[in-house]
Amino acid sequence: MTTLLIILQFIIVVVICIAVLLQKSSSIGLGAYSGSNESLFGAKGPAGFLAKFTFFMGIVLIANTIALSYIYNTSSGDSLAEKITVKNNSSIPNPPMSIVPSVPNNNENNITK
């Protein structure tokens, strides 16, 4: 169910982006390419239809986002970090003491005046 809603979320976002890019703006933008569609959408052109369609798709996007957040919050109370188990790896041996350098003791070397 979650996978279906995530795929639907991506599809809705792409559709909203296309609808916004097709709308006419003050600087024309990509709305200039939809000029031949005026007879399909009526006398006012696609402006009214695309504005209503964008508003409707925005509402669907918000509803889908709320549904996704509800499903994620109720599906599992544990986070992935809480499910990690730490295993001790005893196959790695400790290095021999002859390889480990010794650290000089600074307390013996201090000269007090």
From TrEMBL:
InterPro entries per the UniProt record, alphabetical: SecG
Keyword terms: Cell membrane, Membrane, Protein transport, Translocation, Transmembrane, Transmembrane helix, Transport
GO biological process, alphabetically ordered: intracellular protein transmembrane transport; protein secretion; protein transport by the Sec complex
TM helices/strands, residue ranges: 51-72
Keyword Nucleotide-binding (UniProt): no
Membrane topology designation: Multi-pass membrane protein
Coiled-coil residues: none
Family membership: Belongs to the SecG family.
Protein name per UniProt: Protein-export membrane protein SecG
Species of provenance: Campylobacter novaezeelandiae
